[in-house]
Amino acid sequence: xxxxxxxxxxxxxxxxxxxxxxxxxxxxxxxxxxxxxxxxxxxxxxxxxxxxxxxxxxxxxxxxxxxxxxxxxxxxxxxxxxxxxxxxxxxxxxxxxxxxxx
Length: 102
Prior knowledge:
Layout: E1 2-3, H1 7-18, E2 23-29, E3 39-44, H2 48-57, E4 73-76, H3 78-87, H4 91-97
């Protein structure tokens, strides 16, 4: 279940990704399969090959991409999430959704 973002933010993210940009959004997320995670960062791009290349720069594997039509994306948690958000300068997303007690 996703929460913590509004419809405008979600639509803006989708539009950027569909336009071929690397679009990054973070939201609260609860899933029994991942009991230690309460947020996820989704990195999407309508250009699959661009997304693959972007992911390689962060050590992400192509097989981790969730193919969802025009919005293929990576789901990032934990260390990958932290590294990407901070490297991309997305401090607001980091501060809003991640409890950094480490």
